[in-house]
Amino acid sequence: MTVGIQYRDLISYLRTLESAVLNQLYKHPATCLAIFRRLPPLARQYVIRLLHIRQAVPQAVINSWYDPEAARDHTSSEDALLSLRLWHETTLPGGLPGWQLNPTFQEMLRQALAGGGDPWIVYGELDKDKHGRDTKFLDQYAQERWDCVLHYMVGSEVNSESGISQDAVRILLHSGLMKKEDDSPNSKNLITMEGFQFLLMDTEDQVWYFILQYLSTVETRGVSLVDCLQFIFQLSFLTLGKDYSIKGVSENLLVFLQHLREFGLVYQRKRKSGRFYPTRLAIGLASGLKELQATKDEQGYIIVETNYRVYAYTDSPLQVALLSLFCELLYRFPNLLVAVLTRESVRQALKGGITSNQITHFLKSRSHRVVLEREEGIIPMTVTDQLRLWELERDRFKFGESVLYSQFQTTGDFEMLRNYARDIGVLKYENPQKRFLVVSKSGDAEVRQFWKRHKKDYD
């Protein structure tokens, strides 16, 4: 996704988990159904065909279920099912190789599709909420809470009521999105190169990446990773604007719920309230449904002109702070920001780890509706080309560790060592007039040994 950030989607993340963790996850129908709908289309077909077959099926039979032209799709589907431990290879009577579905996954997916089993923990009975919240309120709440995290990262001022907790700060430090200025107790937290890249990601990708970093620390908090993941999968099937009960939720999951509340994934009027409302961020977290994206209202406020001027029709301090990462701000009006892309402003962004492609994607994804259909493109070609050229300027030099050899007593000594370094392919630079040469770090030991043997013979 971005250079420097090890981004994983849902399936890629689950592939990194151990078999024991996956087997525990598959004991809940929500997990199985969420994973099933994120599988490749051909893999979903295999699962459905095998869902009610309890014994292994010959691989030759399964190979007959796809068109020969779709061999690549079959290979990727086979790999996905195998890496997720959704099926395993076995040997049939007679020695034929076969595939068999994971029995736990098979049973739980049948329950999810056909019904049965224990009710999910969030479906307890509730009276009508006299403080009910609609989708508009939930969208605004989710955006405000998530913006608090981003405000903290860019260092923009927010009021005390909308600040973030120390727990969220620890996640930012743990993930490498921010770092301590120094080792003193009162040192400030500064954004890192990865943090700059994180800010230009879509909100959905930001939330998923942040939650993955949070999940990597849950074991140290005494919370089960499996319980947290199962709860996230349950949230992805809930209805936006409907309230759900916390009756029966364990104490550890209640702590997890409060953290989700802080990040804007769920809304609870009070910490001890017996109900919560999922927001779009939570429902879209594991579902991957594009219509649930929370950024749709953010897009459509930027116009970029051929003279590198950027007009942003927004009054959001956060959006202004994001543009300032790679633009020079010129004028600020109540609902309009005028900025310009300059060589220096873009170079500062490049130094922070942001790429020209990320800047272009950011501007395109938030383009004003009046430029979406213009013939010359959403972003003028002169601007995208110049961004790329400014980036290429930084790639003219490649830095690497090397060793300098100088102060040769004779030209013969210099030429002898230079020729040897050149022959073994470690010579980086030479200056015969001043009698010095540069060799690579990896070749230093060999060149040094050669010089010592030469001096010993000379002595």
Automatic annotation (TrEMBL):
<feature type="domain" description="Transcription factor Tfb2 C-terminal">
    <location>
        <begin position="385"/>
        <end position="452"/>
    </location>
</feature>
<dbReference type="GO" id="GO:0006289">
    <property type="term" value="P:nucleotide-excision repair"/>
</dbReference>
<dbReference type="InterPro" id="IPR040662">
    <property type="entry name" value="Tfb2_C"/>
</dbReference>
<keyword id="KW-0804">Transcription</keyword>
<dbReference type="Pfam" id="PF18307">
    <property type="entry name" value="Tfb2_C"/>
</dbReference>
<dbReference type="GO" id="GO:0005675">
    <property type="term" value="C:transcription factor TFIIH holo complex"/>
</dbReference>
<dbReference type="InterPro" id="IPR004598">
    <property type="entry name" value="TFIIH_p52/Tfb2"/>
</dbReference>
<dbReference type="Pfam" id="PF03849">
    <property type="entry name" value="Tfb2"/>
</dbReference>
<dbReference type="GO" id="GO:0000439">
    <property type="term" value="C:transcription factor TFIIH core complex"/>
</dbReference>
<keyword id="KW-0539">Nucleus</keyword>
<comment type="similarity">
    <text>Belongs to the TFB2 family.</text>
</comment>
<dbReference type="GO" id="GO:0006366">
    <property type="term" value="P:transcription by RNA polymerase II"/>
</dbReference>
<protein>
    <recommendedName>
        <fullName>General transcription factor IIH subunit 4</fullName>
    </recommendedName>
</protein>
<dbReference type="GO" id="GO:0001671">
    <property type="term" value="F:ATPase activator activity"/>
</dbReference>
<comment type="subunit">
    <text>Component of the 7-subunit TFIIH core complex composed of XPB/ERCC3, XPD/ERCC2, GTF2H1, GTF2H2, GTF2H3, GTF2H4 and GTF2H5, which is active in NER. The core complex associates with the 3-subunit CDK-activating kinase (CAK) module composed of CCNH/cyclin H, CDK7 and MNAT1 to form the 10-subunit holoenzyme (holo-TFIIH) active in transcription.</text>
</comment>
<comment type="function">
    <text>Component of the general transcription and DNA repair factor IIH (TFIIH) core complex which is involved in general and transcription-coupled nucleotide excision repair (NER) of damaged DNA.</text>
</comment>
<keyword id="KW-0234">DNA repair</keyword>
<dbReference type="GO" id="GO:0003690">
    <property type="term" value="F:double-stranded DNA binding"/>
</dbReference>
<keyword id="KW-0227">DNA damage</keyword>
<keyword id="KW-0805">Transcription regulation</keyword>
